[in-house]
Amino acid sequence: MASTNANIWGLQDPSLIKDQSYIDGKWVSAKEGGTILVTNPATDEELGTVPEMGLEDAKSAIAAAGKAFASWGKTTARHRHDILMKFYSLMQEHNDDLARIITLENGKTLTEAKGENAYSASFMEWYAEEAVRTYGEQIPSPFTNIRNVVIKQPVGVVAIFTPWNFPSAMITRKLGAALAAGCTAVIKPPPETPFSALALAELSRRAGVPDGVINIVTTQKNVIEVGREMCESKTVRKVSFTGSTPVAKGLYGMAASTLKKVSIEAGGNAPFIVFDDADIDQAVEGAIACKFRGSGQTCVCANRIYVQSSVYADFASKLAEKVTAFKVGNGLDATTTHGPLIHEKAISKVTRHVEDAVSRGAQVLVGGKRVDGVGAFFTPTVLSEVPAGALFNVEETFGPVAALTKFETEEEVIALANDADVGLAGYFFSRDVGRVWRVAEALEVGMVGTNTGLISHATIPFGGVKESGIGREGSHGIEEYLNQKLIAFGGI
Length: 492
Description:
CATH topology of the largest domain: Aldehyde Dehydrogenase, Chain A, domain 1
CATH class of the largest domain: Alpha Beta
Helix content: 25-40%
Domain Aldehyde dehydrogenase: 27-486
Pathway: Amino-acid degradation; 4-aminobutanoate degradation
Low-confidence stretches: none
CATH architecture of the largest domain: 3-Layer(aba) Sandwich
Strand order of the largest sheet: 14-15-16-13-12-18-19
Number of strands: 22
Distance between the termini: 60 Å
Family: Belongs to the aldehyde dehydrogenase family.
Pfam families: Aldedh
C-alpha cells in the first residue's frame, strides 16, 4: 500500500514507499489504528504516515520472528550468502530512489544520501561473505578418547533499535550480520525516518528473505512499552542498539532481565587534535569531513577541536574560510552542501551550546545562528577561543559547529581529550611518527583516526569504550550474533 503522499517522493519505483509496518511478510497497520506523521526537515512538508504500533503489535512481530527462526536458523551459510548478495544488488540497482528517500526524511544532501546507501549496501556484501567464514575449531584434548569440537550457531531472534542520522546504514550494519549468522530480526526504526527502513523491508522481500525473518515495528508514543517488550521477551535472545547513552543504559537494564546478549553503540564526544607539526591544510580538510558531514549529526564527528597554540590562528582562519563557502539548503538542490538538522529540538540544543560558549568568551568566526524561514536550518559555524568548561566540551552537540579550544602541550591535550565519560572516536593530526603512536595508544576511545577525518567502512570494528558502548559492529561483528557450542566426542 503506497503512502497517501507518494507523489511528492519522485521515485522511479514508487512501490518502495510503504505506509504500513512489515510483520511476518505482510504490510500491516497498527492494531489500534494510530499513525505517526513524518515530515521533511528541510521544508516542513508532510511526507506521509506510518503506523503507531503498540505492545500487541510488537508481540506479533516477535512471535513471527521466533517462528521463522526455526527454519531460517537451519539454512546453509551459502544459501544466506546468496540472498544477502541479491539484497546488495537490489540496493545498488535502486540507489537513486533509496538515496532520495533518505534525503527527504533525514535532510542530508543527495550526494551524502547516495554515499550512505553505498555504505549501507556494503554491509550486506561484507556479511554475505562473512556468512561462509563462520568457522568452528577443534581443540586438542588431554584425553585419548575425547575429541573437542567447537561449532557456531545463531543466537536466535534479535531486537534492533536504530537512530535517524543514518536511516539505512544503521539498520544494515546490524541486520546484515544477523541475517548472515542465521538470526531473525525485529527492527524498531526511529519515527523521524521510518521510510528508509520500510523500503529495505520491501527489497528484502524481493531478495527472497522468507516471511517473518525481518519484521519492522514503527512507533513513537508507544516506544517505552514496545522497547521493553523487545528487550524483555524471552523469545528475543539479543538486543542491538545505536543511539544516546541514556537510552542505551535503559535498554541495557531491560535486557539484563533475561541475560540477553547486547551490542550497544551509544553517544560520543570525539576529540579532534591538531598538533603544531601537522599538515594544517590536511587537518582543515579532515576537520571539514569529520565535523560537518551530515551537518554535524554523526556519532563519530569531531565535537571538541583542540589546536596547539602555535598553529591555532592559521588553522582557525583556514577553517573559517572554508566554512564560509558552505551553502545551506534543501538536500535535493544540487548546489546545497549542507542540509537541515533533524528537528527543532536539535536546533535548540545547538543554539544553547553556541550561546553558552559565547557567554564564556568564545568568538564567532562564522555563522552562529539558525537560518530564518522554513526548515530546521542552522548556519555552519566556527567558534574561536572556546573555554574547556563550555558545553561543547561536556556534551555531544550533534550540529554543524566547530568549537576551537587552544592547548599548549601533548600531555595537556591528552588529559583534555580523555576527560569524558564516553569514548567512541578520536582524531589527531601530526607528522611525528613517535607522537602518532603515543597519542593513538593514549586516547581512551574505541577508534582513532590519525591524519584522517573519516574512519567508517564495513570492514573495520566499529564501537567504543567507557559509556560509548559494548561490542563491535562491522568487521567480524557477525560473532556478536553467534553462540559457541562445544561438542565433546567421547568413546573414541
